[in-house]
């Protein structure tokens, strides 16, 4: 019997695409979540087994025991793949315990968290000579003067811990246009006990956002990679990819691979860059230390990242590969429709431009004609939300 793969997180399309990528290669996939509610990835026909267990944050010690108990009953140690930031944080915190029972990258404890944390990431990147947006920390003297003269308005108030910030405010950051708004953003963050930094907005529309998606083997060498360009994101201007295509940019590999190899990174990573519209310089914005939103696009283009990681960890690595040309675009239709409404409303895109862009072949976030049940479950969830929204309005 071969090694099973345990996928942590099945209530979002990243987990779903990971389940499919492994299942299509004949891997026995065990999909885990803390609740069946909303976990449409569990409906995939590529799930060999489903596990419902303790919550990653509320019952983290119990989850460690739950997972280790599961692994102890297997013939071979399973591969463990986190598919959301909270699961990465959980893995990083308990990596010493979990590596006794699972196959996971032999990474330095705390490195994932260090690279997810915006403040420590920017410190490490600066030390390695990688450009990051100019930043003012909230404990600096003459804070408002520095923001006004160095960063200039508008600027962004950005969380150090993104998952906690998003959970609290349902957005990735605050955009502020003057000192009053800055103070309000700082007050809200302090009240929520969330640490933040203030950064310059790198000039350029959303299509100036690029990604370097790569896999690093157990020797911390980049073996598989592809670069992409965002076209639309949601929320617009400062959100996640909803319409993104492959675009080869050698400079992103030159910067990204060198940086992650030097810090001893292992496993899959995605670096988000923004190209300065005025200077053409690429700035590192953030790093996703897990399978990402674009996983279905990478698969369609020819890089099955979950399976690449699986093969590396079981000791049978695949040959190195990079993709320099693909016509596919990643499309998360539901949120793209929300984004399109806002782009048009704010005059940032025209309907003609949007319609023209939709002609490209798609790598869908959720839909798969050979595995339709997760889409049906997702639509049922959306329908429930709509009915509740109508119901709430009706009572007013």
Query: What radius of gyration results from the CA coordinates?
Result: 21 Å
CATH fold category name of the largest domain: D-amino Acid Aminotransferase, Chain A, domain 1
Q: How much helical structure, as a percent, in the residues?
A: 25-40%
Named at the architecture level, the CATH assignment of the largest domain is 2-Layer Sandwich
Q: Which of globular, elongated, flat, extended, rod-shaped describes the shape? A: globular
| Main beta-sheet strand count, sense and barrel state | 8 strands, mixed
The low-pLDDT segments are: none
- Classify the oligomer: single chain
Kindly give the count of domains: 3
- Which band does the percent of strand residues land in? 15-25%
Task: Tell me what you see in this structure.
- This protein starts with a strand and ends with a helix.
- The model has no long low-confidence stretch (mean pLDDT 95).
- It is globular and about 60 Å long.
- It has helices at residues 13-23, 60-72, 85-93, 95-98, 111-116, 118-127, 143-151, 162-169, 179-191, 250-262, 295-301, 305-313, 333-345, 351-357, 373-395, and strands spanning 5-8, 29-33, 47-52, 79-82, 135-137, 155-159, 174-176, 196-200, 209-216, 222-234, 240-246, 267-275, 282-288, 321-323, 329-331, 362-364.
- The chain has three domains: 5-104, Rossmann fold (3-Layer(aba) Sandwich); 134-200, Dna Ligase, domain 1 (2-Layer Sandwich); 206-364, ATP-grasp fold, B domain (D-amino Acid Aminotransferase, Chain A, domain 1, 2-Layer Sandwich).
- The strands form three sheets. Strands 9, 10, 11, 12, 13, 14, 15 and 16 form an eight-stranded mixed beta sheet that branches. Strands 3-2-1-4 form a four-stranded parallel beta sheet.
- It has 396 residues and is an alpha/beta fold.
